[in-house]
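FAQ
Q: What does a multi-component entry look like?
A: The components come first, one per line:
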Amino acid sequence: MPEGDTIHRSARTLERALAGRRLQRFEVRGPAAARASRPKTGTAITQVEARGKHLLIHFDDGIVLHTHMGMHGAWHLYRHGERWRRPGTQARVIIETDNGTVAVCFAAPTVETARATHGLRNVRDLGPDLCRDEPDIDEALRRAGRLDPRTEIAVVLLDQRVAAGIGNVYKSEACFACGVDPFTPLAAIEIETLRSLFVTAARMLRANLTTTRRATVDGGLAVYGRSGRRCRRCSNVVMSRRQGEQHRMTYWCPSCQSRRVRTAADATTTATTTRDATAPSQPAVAPASTTVDAASAGRPTRSPRRA
Ligand SMILES: [Zn+2]
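Then the predicted structure of the entire assembly, as tokens:
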């Protein structure tokens, strides 16, 4: 299940392979082919970067290639002539460089090019990227403050316009770490708790930037994917159910995650204090490994809300 950490890892691997190289071939296939602007042969690749769960490849003529992996997309790296591990019919972008490196993007639901990053609406509207050093948590809180106060907190955490990078895994894990019931409406979440949720999710994402086996606690994950099993903390049974318009699966421990309801007076104040929240302990980190074949997060997006 791909989240910001996965896409940042992919971007780093692609950056090492592609940055500074010149294009021998740039091909877009599928629905995006007709619209795509194409950098010319000989154009240099200047940078590969992730913004939340979005991957951007920059060319020195100003063109930017934007891909979002959805549920099944992935970038692979090959040598020229090497056999691909996925069918050619799934290829959406093929980039070949002057040193014989071939980068292929398979099955990504979002492929587009623009003359500059600000031409990419879903990228432009993203909240602060929690995978980066020192993300602007105050900005995430301000953006959360603009949402419908009835929005359930786990849905808020997934909203990439509020903060970028959190997917289904860290949504559930951050709520557990902070003891928050994922179905609590935003209006009932204390500001310190909201800050703590973003700080915690950011720490978890960054702790997993160099790993492929995600861990947020010793032994792996606390609740995500553990429905019906014993809570690692209290031994009660971990629950799961689908949540929000997108019916994304949420995992939680009903005893460790009790609702935190504010008073009506508290609920009228806006969500922009600058007090430091005490963040939970540093998550455990699993062994490192490198691969760019990291499928991505979330489902294909139809609105910028959950890009
Ligand atoms: Zn528990």
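Q: Is there any commentary attached?
A: Sometimes. For this entry: The longest strand covers residues 45-51.
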